[in-house]
Amino acid sequence: MHIILIRLLVIGAIGSPILFGACESDGADEPAVLMAPNLSAPTEVTASSFFVDWPFIEGADGYQIDVARDEAFTDFVEPYQGIRHNFSEFTVSDLEPATTYYVRVRSISRDLVSDNSNVVSVTTINASGSEPGSPLKDAAEFSVGMAVQVNKLNGQHQEILLREYDQITSEYEMKMNIMYPSEGNLDFTQSDATVNWAVENGLDVHGHALIWHNATPTWVEEFSGTDQEFETMIEDYIKTTVTRYKGKVKSWDVVNEAFEDVGGVLRNSVFREKMGDDYIEKCYRWTREADPDVLIFYNDYNMVTHPVKRTAALNMVKDFLDRGVPIDGFGYQMHISHDNPSKEAIESAAKEVTDLGLLLHFSELDVRANPANDLEVLTIQRANYQQNKVREVVEVYNAIPEESKFGITIWGMKDDETWLLEFWGHPDWPLLYNADFSFKRAHTGFLEGLE
Ligand code: 9MR
User: Fold this and answer.
1) Are residues 162 and 78 in the same domain?
2) Beta strands at 120-123 and 143-148: parallel, antiparallel or unpaired
3) DSSP, res 340
């Protein structure tokens, strides 16, 4: 608060000024510290400039801005070292393309200087207007995929998809509850649109997922016919679907998440109840009969972190290989966190699949930056951890034997679209792109993993 000084001057009878009714502050209310600004993420990023702003600070009559090439602010960018500015927004210009910059700001009021603000970082785009580095699919020697939703196969989504990826997985529109919503009524509207889009644009389709306990239509859960009728219905559904997409869908997750998280046992489901414990191999055989060339995968989560579950699933797969039940690959769903699992754990779990001579799919990759819900915004530090974890995942994958390489699939395009927001009910930023379609450090981490 500023000094308040109200002097009411009255010219008295004797002609001398009289001070009365004075209300005076001697400066005791002066704040000892001035609030530091809180910077928003930079916007309007070009190859040579970006814009940054922050809420106005009460009592500040200006700001000092630092821009550096390093997070420790030792390598300042001329002339942005404590540069004075009067307003709570600023455009930093004359920068290099494809370079990461760090910004912090202090408030000033006469002799007072606040602490530094939070540090925000930004990477300028490269001179051609796209991101630095190669598109992911060009940099990788394996397929790089993304989970898609049919209503987002256009606009900026489409632009990024076509630039970065060579494979797609439908996030939910090629599951049984969507393709078979009611008895006798197969509905391929969404799946056709997805597959046709991919074929027209030259991307591979990984089909996901024919049988999944979490995407089973109610009428199937409540099936009223005999067990034999149930089995025939499932056989028809699988064969009709796989035949429809023969030559267009390269691979299928036929059964998804069949094992319990603990105990190494098969999960109970309507399929297991009505068709028996061997329901999985039946589904795999029907898939192969419908399309001799399609790649058949088993896909499950917590495969790195839950060794008992992994062993059970791998034992099933080994048994399939021994008995000639068709199976080509194993999908490790990579719903992981910035701090877990370790690179070593991912590496050794991956080896268990590749030692079997199977294809390995790192499917459903997203890396939670906020698993403990201790962040309201994605901090630079956490974004760095996330970048490192993505790099590690890609490094592990890149190092597996060539004959086991199938691809890595990222589970969505941008942070505001991830299933995790609804699932956990708190903020997170698990993907490679920000909500505004700008790429994140995690994206850079993917490219670094390929170096
Ligand atoms: O991310 C998917 C979400 O959009 C769907 O609503 C949901 C149900 O179809 O499935 C989510 O994807 C799941 C995937 O198919 C299997 N592994 C777990 C994924 C997250 O639940």
Assistant:
1) no
2) unpaired
3) B
User: Which mutation among 254, 419, 421 tests ligand 1's pocket best, with the greatest number of atoms within 8 A of CB?
Assistant: 419
The count of structural domains within the chain is: 2
> Out of 281, 352, 364, 448, which one is annotated catalytic?
364
pLDDT band at residue 125 using 50, 70 and 90 as cut-offs: low
Residue identifier of the C-alpha nearest atom 7 of ligand 1: 172
Selecting among 164, 257, 281, 448, the annotated active-site residue is 257
Q: Answer yes or no: 260 catalytic.
A: no
> Could you tell me if residue 271 is inside a domain?
yes
Question: Same domain, yes or no, for 119 and 140?
Answer: no
Q: How far, CA to CA in Å, does 264 sit from each of 260, 304, 329?
A: 6, 14, 20
CA of residue 273 to ligand 1 center, whole Å: 23
| Residue that finishes a domain, picked among 94, 123, 152 | 123
Report whether the peptide linkage leading into residue 79 is cis, meaning its omega lies within 30 degrees of zero. yes
What is the pLDDT, as a whole number, of residue 24? 39
pLDDT value of position 57: 95
Tens digit of pLDDT for each residue in 74-85?
Answer: 999 999 999 999
In a domain, 303, yes or no: yes
Same domain assignment for residues 167 and 115: no
Distance 355 CA to ligand 1 centre (A): 29
Q: Is residue 306 predicted with pLDDT exceeding 60?
A: yes
Say which CATH number the domain at 236 has. Answer: 3.20.20.80
Sign of the Cα torsion 394, 395, 400, 402 reads positive
CA distance 386 to 167: 23
In a domain, 15, yes or no: no
Q: 150 is in which domain, residue-wise? A: 136-448
**Residues 114 and 147 reside in one and the same domain:** no
Query: Both 226 and 193 in a single domain?
Result: yes
Same-domain check for residues 118 and 169: no
Place of tokens 């974004």: 383
Is residue 132 very low, low, confident or very high in pLDDT (cuts 50, 70, 90)?
low
Q: Is residue 32 part of a domain?
A: no
pLDDT digit string, tens, across residues 381-418: 899 999 999 999 999 999 999 999 999 999 999 999 99
Residues 430 and 323 reside in one and the same domain: yes
Which amino acid is present at 34? L
Instruction: List, chain by chain if needed, residues with CB within 6 Å of any ligand 1 atom.
Output: 171-172, 175, 215, 256, 301, 333, 364, 419
Q: Which residue owns the Cα nearest ligand 1 atom 10?
A: 172
- CA-based angle 444:449:451, to the nearest 5? 100
Contact between residue 304 and residue 341 where contact means Cβ atoms under 8 Å apart: yes
Question: Which atom of ligand 1 lies nearest, measured to the CA of 419?
Answer: 1
For residues 101 and 216, membership in a common domain is answered with no
Q: Return the residue whose CA atom lies nearest to atom 1 of ligand 1.
A: 419
Last residue of a domain, one of 70, 95, 123: 123
Among 149, 171, 416, which residue has the most ligand 1 atoms within 8 Å of its CB, making it the best to mutate?
A: 171
Active site residue 257: yes
